[in-house]
Amino acid sequence: MTDDSIIETGIEGLDSMLKGGVPIKNQTIIAGGPGAGKTLLCLEILYNNAKRGIPGVFISMEEDPGHIVRNFKKAFPDFSDIDTLIEKKIIVIDGQDPSSKIMGTSDYERYTFGTIVSDIENEILKNNAKIVVIDSLSMLSLVLTDKVNYRKSVLALIANFNRLGVTSFLTYELDSSERTNLKFEADFFLFDGLITLYQSSQEDRRAFLTEIVKMRGVDHSHALVPYEITSQGIKVYSIN
Question: Does the domain made of 25-197 have the CATH classification 3.40.50.300?
Fold first, then answer.
């Protein structure tokens, strides 16, 4: 696989597990429990690629953009040039609030979802984005309460990203932070990739673990490996 056929995450251990990176135009779920670092992982991928001149868009369905940036700076104080990348619009962080749209008829839900997707597409085109983060798919699932409509809409979202030629990362909140007895949503397997972040209790501290459950187009590692969230970014301790 040539370099121009992948998006490097810029996270050394993770790229090692991915044999170089995520194939361009792959649509990937980043799933994990609360506090696992899903949002930070996606932001770091955007940041690392922005440093290489690759534009990206972060669409938050849950938080104000200012709050997202503040959390990023607090978690990763060593990434001191984030404001410059945002000012240059190499990274665009946009927020939406679907909370007022959650209730309604099936037809209204489809219309609402279509409006959200249209807004996302406009941000992609306006900023010539190559990487898109949606935080989170869990919130979008609340907009569409009918499971058939939701599944059709997710397929339409994936097709839209493929048509636009972007590589996307969508976070999803799992019911449990533990790997034991964890059940994945069937809709996850509509996507090209699934990376999971776990937390487990070990004596008096929490341990963070990650694995690549699937990634189309890559002979990826299947190992379960530890990671840390540090001031210098997320460190994945790949054994490959």
Answer: yes
113 touches 144 (CB < 8 A):
yes
The number of C-alpha atoms within 13 Å of 49 and in the hemisphere containing its C-beta is: 31
- Under-70 pLDDT residues of the chain: 1-3, 96-112, 176-182, 202-204, 240
Bond from prior residue into 136 cis (ω within 30 degrees of 0): yes
Domain boundaries defined on the chain: 25-197
pTM, two decimal places = 0.91
Q: Tell me the pairing of strands 56-60 and 131-135.
A: parallel
pLDDT tens digits for 194-209? 999 998 776 667 789 9
Give me Rg for the CA atoms of the chain: 17
Contacts by residues 104-108 (CB-CB < 8 Å, ≥ 24 positions apart): 106/146, 106/149
For 26-37, the pLDDT digits (tens) are: 999 999 988 899
